[in-house]
Structures are given as C-alpha cells and as structure tokens.
C-alpha cells in the first residue's frame, strides 16, 4: 500500500476501529447497524471518502440503489487515491453485472494498492469473464509472485498462458509445477485434471508424440483417473500420429464399451481414411462391409444398422431397411419415423420405404404376415397398428394429408385409446392448417392420461397455436408450483425456453406485440444469465482444480449466442421492432389491450367472489406491465433491434433468416454497407432463396444518390454482384422462369413485383398469385396464407375473398382460410372442449 496517505483519510483510533466495524457489518449483512456506525464516523468527519463509500455500498445492498450510488461517487470524488473507494465502486458495478466498469474500478484500485490479493483475484476473474487474456496473464503472474506456495496459482497461470495462445510458457509453468510435487497420494483427482490439461497443451502445440507419452505414463502410474477420457484422447492422438493400426484398436475398444455412439463410429472410420458424411461412391462398399461386421459383433446395437441405411443404395438399401423397419414396428417404437425421416432427402430411398410399408400393410391386413418371411403363427395385432401409425406420419410429412388421415383413422378404429395415435392425428391436422382441430385432438389425447407431463405439455403447445393461451397455461399449471404467481412465471423461473418461445409466438400471431416481445426478451435474458454463470464457476474451478471443465464452459459460452433458441428469439424480437418502426401506432396497442383486460377481469373476479383480489396464500405478481407497454414505447426500435442482433454476429453464418432480418434493420437505419454485407452473406447461403430474391430487388429499388461518393460506389459495385445489370422486371421474370412451379418462388416474385411497380402492378400481382392454384404447382398452407394476406393488401377485399374461396377448395382441412368470424366459432369449440374437462 502507498505510504503517502492523505491527511484527510487518516482517522483517529476510535473512528478507525468504528470503520473496521462498518466493514464487518457489511460482510455479515448487518446493514442497519452498519449505517448507524458509519453515521457516527460521518458526524465528525463528513468528508471521509472511504466511510461515505461504505455507507453507499450498504445502502446499495438494501435496494436503495440510487441513493447508494450517489454516496459511493461522492466518496470517490473526495478520495481519488484510495483503493477502498475504487474497490467499493467496483463492487457496486459488479452487483449490477456491469463487468466492464467493475474491471476499470478494480484496475484503478490496484494503482494505489498493487499487491491487494482480494482485488487481484477479482480482477483476474473479471479479465477471464471479459476475455482480456493478455491482461489476465499479467494479473496471474502477480498473484503467483505474491503467493507461490499456493499450487492453484501455478495452475491458474498455466491456464492463462494457454488461453492467451502461449502454449510454450504454459508448458514451462506446468513442468515447473509438476517438478515440485512430492509424495503424491493415490487417487488425487485435482492432479489428475492437471495432467490431463498438460496433455491438452502438448496436443495444442502440435507435439502429439510427447502428449501420447505423457498420457500413457500418467495412465500407467494411475495418476489420471478419467479412464474413458484417457481412451478417447489416446485414440485421437494415435490417429493424428498416423499410427492407424493402434488407432483402430483404440476406437474398437471404445466401441466395445459403447457400441451405440455415433461419434465413435465416425472417428473409427476417420482412422480408416473414410467418412460417413456424404462418402464417395467408391468408398461405400468398404463402409458397408465394416458396418455389417459391426452389426454382427453388436447385434443389439442399433447405430451400425442405422448408419448402414445412410450409406446403402438401391437393392442394398432395400435389403437393409426392410428388417430394420419390421423390427421397429414389432417392438412398437413410436420414434421409428423420426429415426427414418432423414433418409427422405433421397427420393429413391423415400419411395423404397413407402413401397415396403404399403406392402407390409396389405399383407398384415390380408394374412397377418410379413412379406418374404415363412408362414408362422402370425404377427401380433400391434404390428399392424404401428404400421398404420408410421404410414400416417409418412404421408403427413410428404404433405398428403388426406392419405395420412385415412391411415390414422384406421389406426383409431383398431385401437382408439392409445395416446400416440390421437397425438399423431392432431399433428396431421396441424400440418394441414387446422390448429383448432389439432388442439381438440391433442386435448383428447391428454385426457387418456391426465397425469402425464409430456401429454399435458403437448396439449398446452397446441392450445397456444389455436390461440387459447389461458387454457394452455392452466394445463401447464398442473405441473408447476402451486404458490407461484402463475404457471408462466414459474416456467420462466425454470428457464423453459420452449414455453417462452411458444407463448411469444402465440401472442405475436394475435397481434399482441408487447406480450410477445416480453416473452422473447425473457429468452434473451436467460442467455444473459447463462453468460453470467461462468463468473461464479471460475472461483469454483480454481478451488477444485476442475479447469478442463471450465475450459469447455468457456468454449460453450463463446458460441452461446449462436444457439438456435437465441437466434429464433432474437430474430422474432427484431421483427417486432421493425413493425414498430414501420407503424409507430402499434406502440399504443399495449395500452388498449391492458384496458380491455381490466374490463374483462372485473366480471370474472366478481363471479369468483374475490372482488379482484388475489386468492389467499397466492404469491403477488411483481409484473406491473403485463402488456409490455414499456418495451413497445421505445423511441428507437431499430437501435434496440440492432443491439439484439449484434450479439450474435459472427456466430450465425448458416442462419439465413437471421441475415435477412439484419438486412431489414440495417436498410431502415440507413446503414447501406451493413445491409449489403448481410445480403451478401444471405445470398452465399442460398442464392435463389425467395427471401433473398425479394431483398435483392428491394435493395436495387433504393436511391443511393444522397450517399457519400465512396459509399455509393461500393454499393453500386456490390449491387452489380448481387444482381445482373438489367431491368428489375426482367430480373424478376428470369427468377420466376427458373422456378415456375415453386410456390414460395411465385410468392417472392409477386412481392418483388409489388416493390418494382407499386400500386400500378396490382393486376399483375393478382395474376401471378393465381398460379399458386394451378394443378402443376403444389403450394403449402403457409405459402398460400401469406399469398392471401398479400393479395388483400394489393388487390382489395373482394379479390381476397375470391382467393380465399379458392384456397378453401384446395385445402379443405385448413381452418386458417376461414373468415375471422368462422375461426371464432372454431375457437369456441376448442374452449367448450377444454372447459368440459375442468
């Protein structure tokens, strides 16, 4: 600590003792006594910065945040060279998870007390949290110099060098540390992790021979306790060293231990110089021969049989898939179709599967036998049932809803009380565009076993899709805490991403943008919590020497914002902000919805006899903005959208929808170069994707003459790469010629035509969309629904009604093409069914 202490910081002996008491009171959370003691000091020394800061910190901890921060800042101003005031200021920032500012305060504190161990340790933790690896190395060096007797400081420094990319120095620290070890006890789990990390560093440096030697040495000495991990690392290093015979033996030993591991098979074949991902035709016989050998070795393992289906073709595929399907149907495996459907990317394989199943169904119906098998006592009745179950999923997946319904109805006649059958009928109706019928059948499935959590969860999901969100929450409430504010609040506390996404989507479909945005923001906050979790895990890892797990956590956190759930929620939230920018009046809908809700709840509360009060014993909600009006009232919706999207930049190279939304936001913000980059990325993913085509036209329609010369030049150059230099009408027509029977391409061309011609092109848009109803075009419900909305915007209500009637003829099961009042009737039918169970 510095010896040049300012006179105003020095307290008399009595007050100095009281100040130490204040510190103890804070640490033991005796906040009121702490404030009283601090006030005693401040009566005599009102400008004592350290006491003011401590009083502010205590107030901050008592949820008097603003008052506390003011005192802390005042304390800092009064004593700028005190490490205590800066440390306190950092603690206040850390409680708000403002790690950047926290670290700045800690570094400022260290200027005045360079060897303060507590601040050094906390600074090291923050530097890792913020990925300041170079500074972290310096801090760790200081800690090791001050406390070389603590072995965790040695290991932490090695980790710091490794994360900073300096493997050589990490190895030097490890070797020096390991050389000092004496009398190592057997089964030392902490040192086991150290030796595994040493192997990892050698492997990272490229010294695979030394890594293998160390691994085998410590394994033989029984210093490394993770046997499975040792085998995996050894097999991987042997493969890198080119010792393929030894590598094959290692992978085979792992397969003997777990013959159902996809990863082990992939690594085994990699050691053979083969790949299971799109293998060349000449390699397939070798792959099939090896997989057949594994099938013989491990007859009860399903993975080698399933991998063979990916590789085999033609008759070889038929000969393998037939027994695989029959075995699954005999066992009554509900997940068989989910297992098989990835093969449908190959049309020939899909046709073979359909042929086998249809023949099997005919044989079971006529003679109760399996084609090609000798006549015996016959199949169990369940084989026929599961065959119908599989076929119904098969036809539904292919969009042949009528055929799928015929199969599932036959299955219902066979066994009317099997939940899986009713659930599948609900799924078929959902895909056919009937969310109301789907919800009704899922509710019937739920009633077959009201105690089943999965069935109740599925029912809630389908009720949300039908717009009955309150009923969905009641179903979920059967399995949440009874003293929670609501089922939704409990599920949010449990970080249920699926629930939050489904409810957000349900509110979005109803136009309740505030509620939808609240749910999407809740998902984003959960990922913030995931990110914060690594902060506490660092200290634990340091104590317990579990740094290999911590390194895996760091790698996971670095790609956290690329998680599909985050991308989906961020994209949906950004779309709402785009809507708010395009139509600011939408921001006031939350107020109207809140008023409507209050009026609706008054008669319900009176009927329940509680006059609007919460039931006795129920938790009180802290949510004062149920409609999300605060979120909708943002003055800069595009900035909010940009902030959300920017956190995933660099982690979403393969998410086309994400880049489309990035383009939409950037274009509206006038960030044309950013919009161009996003469009280039999207086009590199799928150059002919309908959304990409629409955005290329939208970008080309823009006038960039007001931009700076170098910006306009860059935009012009990139635009010429995205679309040939020709008229937009011709460009749009050529796109349609390339995809004449694609429903999504026809819709995209119509949207592009609207951008090109505006209101003058309404008749052409109508003519283009009418192609969706031609026999050679096979539209889906979602595309037709979007076309219905577009034709209403462009051509008016009468033309929209004509198109609606045509869609109803084309999709007789799709209730989404009903008029609003008709859909209201269907929704009431769902309500009646749900209410009858309560």
From TrEMBL:
Keyword Transferase annotated: yes
List the Pfam families hit by this protein, alphabetically: NatA_aux_su
The TPR repeats are found at 83-116
Q: Which InterPro entries match?
A: NatA_aux_su, TPR-like_helical_dom_sf, TPR_rpt
Keyword Transferase applies: yes
Superkingdom per UniProt: Eukaryota
Name under which the protein is recorded: N-terminal acetyltransferase A, auxiliary subunit
What are the entry keywords? Repeat, TPR repeat, Transferase
Give a GO molecular function annotation for the protein.
transferase activity
Region Disordered, residue ranges: 589-635
* GO cellular component terms, semicolon-separated: NatA complex
């Amino acid at each position: 600590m510095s010896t040049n202490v300012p006179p105003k910081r020095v307290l008399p002996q009595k007050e100095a003792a009281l100040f130490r008491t204040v510190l103890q009171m804070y640490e033991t959370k005796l906040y009121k006594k702490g404030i009283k003691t601090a006030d005693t000091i401040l009566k005599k020394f009102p400008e004592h910065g350290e006491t003011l800061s401590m009083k502010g910190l205590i107030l901050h901890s008592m949820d008097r945040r603003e008052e506390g921060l003011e005192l802390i800042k005042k304390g800092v101003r009064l004593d700028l060279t005190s490490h205590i005031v800066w440390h306190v200021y950092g603690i206040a920032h850390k409680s708000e998870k403002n790690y950047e500012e926290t670290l700045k305060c800690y570094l400022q504190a260290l200027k005045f007390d360079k060897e303060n161990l507590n601040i050094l340790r906390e600074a090291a933790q923050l530097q890792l949290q913020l990925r300041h690896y170079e500074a972290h190395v310096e801090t760790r060096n200081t800690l090791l110099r001050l406390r070389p007797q603590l072995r965790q400081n040695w290991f932490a420094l090695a980790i710091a060098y490794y994360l900073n990319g300096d493997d050589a120095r990490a190895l030097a620290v490890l070797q020096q540390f390991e050389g000092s070890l004496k009398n190592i006890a057997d089964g030392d789990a902490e040192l086991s992790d150290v030796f595994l990390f040493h192997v990892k560093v050698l492997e990272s440096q490229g010294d695979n021979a030394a890594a293998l030697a160390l691994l085998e040495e410590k394994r033989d000495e029984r210093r490394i306790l993770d046997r499975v991990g040792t085998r995996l690392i050894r097999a991987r290093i042997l493969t890198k060293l080119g010792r393929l015979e030894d590598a094959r033996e290692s992978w085979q030993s792992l397969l003997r231990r777990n013959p159902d591991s996809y990863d082990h098979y992939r690594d085994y074949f990699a050691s053979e110089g083969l790949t299971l991902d799109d293998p060349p035709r000449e390699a397939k016989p070798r792959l099939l021969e090896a997989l057949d050998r594994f099938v013989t070795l491990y007859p009860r393992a399903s993975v080698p049989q399933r991998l063979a289906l990916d590789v085999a073709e033609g008759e070889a595929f038929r000969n393998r898939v037939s027994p695989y399907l029959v075995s699954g149907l005999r066992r009554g495996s509900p997940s068989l179709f989910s297992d098989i459907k990835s093969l449908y990317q190959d049309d020939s394989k899909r046709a073979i599967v359909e042929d086998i199943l249809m023949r099997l169904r005919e044989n079971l119906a006529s003679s109760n036998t399996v084609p090609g098998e000798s006549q015996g006592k016959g199949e169990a009745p369940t084989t026929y049932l599961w065959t119908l179950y599989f076929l119904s999923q098969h036809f539904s997946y292919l969009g042949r809803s009528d055929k799928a319904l015929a199969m599932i109805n036959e299955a219902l006649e066979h066994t009317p009380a099997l939940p899986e059958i009713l659930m599948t009928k609900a799924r078929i109706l959902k895909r056919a565009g009937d969310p109301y019928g789907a919800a009704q059948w899922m509710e019937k499935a739920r009633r077959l076993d009201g105690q089943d959590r999965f069935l109740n969860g599925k029912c809630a999901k389908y009720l949300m899709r039908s717009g009955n969100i309150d009923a969905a929450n009641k179903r979920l409430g059967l399995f949440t805490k009874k003293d929670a504010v609501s089922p939704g609040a409990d599920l949010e506390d449990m970080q249920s991403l699926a629930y939050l996404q489904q409810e957000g989507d349900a509110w979005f479909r109803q136009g309740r943008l505030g509620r939808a945005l609240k749910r999407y923001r809740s998902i984003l906050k959960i990922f913030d919590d995931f990110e914060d979790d690594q902060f506490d895990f660092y200290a634990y890892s340091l104590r317990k020497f579990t740094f290999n797990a911590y390194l895996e956590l760091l790698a996971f956190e670095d790609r956290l914002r690329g998680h599909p759930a985050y991308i989906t929620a961020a994209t949906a939230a950004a779309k709402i902000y785009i809507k708010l920018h395009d139509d600011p009046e939408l921001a006031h809908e939350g107020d109207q919805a809140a008023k409507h809700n209050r009026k609706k709840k008054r008669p319900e509360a009176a009927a329940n006899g509680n006059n609007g009060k919460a039931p006795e014993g129920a938790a009180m909600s802290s949510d004062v903005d149920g409609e999300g009006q605060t979120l909708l009232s943002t003055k800069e919706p595009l900035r909010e959208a940009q902030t959300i999207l920017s956190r995933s930049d660099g982690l979403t190279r393969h998410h086309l929808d994400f880049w489309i939304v990035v383009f939409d936001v950037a274009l509206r913000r006038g960030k044309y170069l950013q919009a161009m980059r996003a469009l280039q990325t999207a086009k590199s993913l799928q150059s002919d994707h309908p959304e990409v085509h629409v955005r290329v036209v939208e970008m080309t329609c823009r006038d960039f003459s007001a931009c700076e010369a170098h910006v306009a030049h860059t935009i012009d150059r990139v635009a010429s790469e995205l679309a040939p230099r020709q008229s937009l009408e011709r460009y749009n027509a050529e796109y349609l010629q390339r995809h004449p029977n694609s429903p999504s391409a026809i819709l995209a061309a119509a949207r592009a035509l609207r951008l090109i011609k505006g209101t003058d092109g309404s008749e052409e848009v109508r003519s283009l969309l009418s192609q969706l109803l031609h026999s050679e075009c096979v539209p889906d419900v979602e595309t037709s629904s979007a076309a219905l909305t577009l034709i209403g915007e462009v051509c008016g209500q009468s033309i929209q009604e004509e198109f609606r009637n045509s869609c109803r003829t084309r999709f007789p099961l799709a209730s989404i093409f009903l008029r609003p009042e008709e859909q209201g009737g269907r929704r009431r039918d769902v309500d009646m069914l749900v209410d009858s169970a309560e």
